[in-house]
Amino acid sequence: MHDQLRETLAQDLRYVTAVQIAQDNSQGHVWLLGGYVSRTLAKLLHGTPLPEKVDLDFVCEGLAAHPYIPAAFTLQRNVHKNPRIQGRGIEIDLMPFTLSNFPRLQERGLPLTIESILAQAPLTTGAIAYHTATGQIIGDVGIHAVETRTLGVNDEAEVKKIVRRNGWTVEEYVRKKAVSFGFTPVFPPKSS
C-alpha cells in the first residue's frame, strides 16, 4: 500500500504542487495529514474520485519566517495564524510541529508526536498521516476507516467543537462527511 500511494501521489499534480510549496516553506520532516491521504487511498483502493476542490494539511518541523508564495497563489492565515496558501481549487495549510499549535496535546498531557496529533483528529478518516520523504503511512484508525469504507468519530471532544460551531448534530456531521467519501457512517452504540 505504501508504494502504491507514493506512486499515485507522485502522479498527482495537486499533491506535487502542494508538497513543493510545503518543502519550500519548511525544514525537516514534513507530514501530510488527514483527508487528502484518506481520499487518495480511497481512490486507490476503491476507485472513489477525489473532489475538484481539495485541501492539504501539512505538519512541518520548522516553517520559514517569510513564506514563499508561488505565482497564482495567495497567502492567508488560519485560526492559529499559520500559513494557508490558496490557489485555484487547492488550499494548503502549513502547521509547525509545536505544542503551541496543538494545545489539546498539552491539555491532555500527551507528547508531541504525529501519533498524538492523529489521536485528536475529529474523524477516523483524519487519523492518518503520510511522511512526504519516506512514503511511510501511519495511523491504524485512518487506514482501517479507508480499508473498510467507514467513517466515524475519532475524538469526540474535537467533533463536538466542530458541530457546535456549525450548528449541526454529530450524526449530521458524520453522515455529511461519510457521503463526501462514499463511505458508511459509523456511530457508537447509544448508552441506555
Task: Kindly describe this structure.
By secondary structure, this protein is α+β, with helices and mostly antiparallel strands. The chain has a single domain, classed as Beta Polymerase, domain 2 (2-Layer Sandwich), CATH 3.30.460. Helices cover 40% and strands 22% of the residues. It is built from eight helices and nine strands. The protein has a seven-stranded mixed β-sheet with strand order 3-4-5-2-1-6-7. A two-stranded parallel ribbon has the order 8-9. Helix 3 packs parallel to helix 6.
Which SSEs are present, and which pair or pack?
Elements (H helix, E strand, L loop, with lengths): L1 H9 L2 H12 L1 E8 L1 H12 L7 E10 L10 E4 L5 E5 L2 E7 L6 H6 L5 H6 L9 E3 L5 E2 L1 H9 L1 E2 L4 H11 L3 H12 L2 E2 L7
Parallel strand pairs: 2-5, 8-9
Antiparallel strand pairs: 1-2, 1-6, 3-4, 4-5, 6-7
Helix pairs in contact: 3-6
Structural class computed from helices and strand pairing: alpha+beta
**Overall spatial form:** globular
Specify the oligomeric state.
Answer: single chain
Can you give the helix content as a percent range? 40-55%
Rg is 16 Å
CATH superfamily: Beta Polymerase, domain 2
Tally of separate helices: 8
Mean pLDDT: 92
CATH level 3 topology: Beta Polymerase, domain 2
The first-level CATH class name: Alpha Beta
Question: What labels describe this entry?
Answer:
single chain, 192 residues, alpha+beta, Beta Polymerase, domain 2, 7-stranded mixed sheet, two-stranded parallel ribbon, 40% helix
Summarize the structure.
The chain is of the alpha+beta class.
